[in-house]
Amino acid sequence: MLTSAEKLETVEVAEAMVIRNGILLAKESGLWPLYVEPDSLSVMKLIFARSSTLSAVWLIIADILDTLENCLCGGNSFCA
Length: 80
Prior knowledge:
The protein has helices at 4-29, 41-49, 56-71. With 80 residues, the chain is an all-alpha fold. It has one domain. The longest helix is centred in the N-terminal third of the chain and has 26 residues, at 4-29. GO terms for molecular function: nucleic acid binding; RNA-DNA hybrid ribonuclease activity. It comes from Acer saccharum (Sugar maple).
């Protein structure tokens, strides 16, 4: 049986994977600019905070940030 923390991380991992897969699909299809409307406030907070953690969800968040920084142009808050 999963603990509450494990269940939360599982939900966050699933939500982050959906966001990542949507961004990758948009990138491959040339659909920019992109608007993401997630269901998980905690995942969005992790994305915007850009603070690494030792969790499974952070690996996906890092991939999301890397993809956005490589795809988006100047003036966007995700650009390096």
